[in-house]
Amino acid sequence: MLQLLTILFFANALTLLVSAFHDCIEASNAARRRRRAKILGVDEIRSKENGSGSSCSGGLCVGMKNGPHEGGNSSYPVAWNGVSGTFVQSKMTVPELPKHVDGITYYIWTDVFFGDASLGRMNQFVPQLILGSALDSSSGPPDYEPDWHTHHSWVFGAHYFFETFDNNNPNTTQAHAAYGDLYPTYAGEILFTTFSITAGGDGMDTKSPKWTLTMGVVGDSSRISKLVVERPYMGMGVDWDEPTSSWAEPEFDNMCINSCWELYGADDRSHLPSSGSTYELMIRQPEPNLYEFVSWEEDEGNGTCPSCKVMETHDQQFQNVTIEIDVVATMDQPATMDQRNQ
Question: Cβ of 155: how many Cβ atoms within 10 Å?
Answer without folding.
Answer: 18
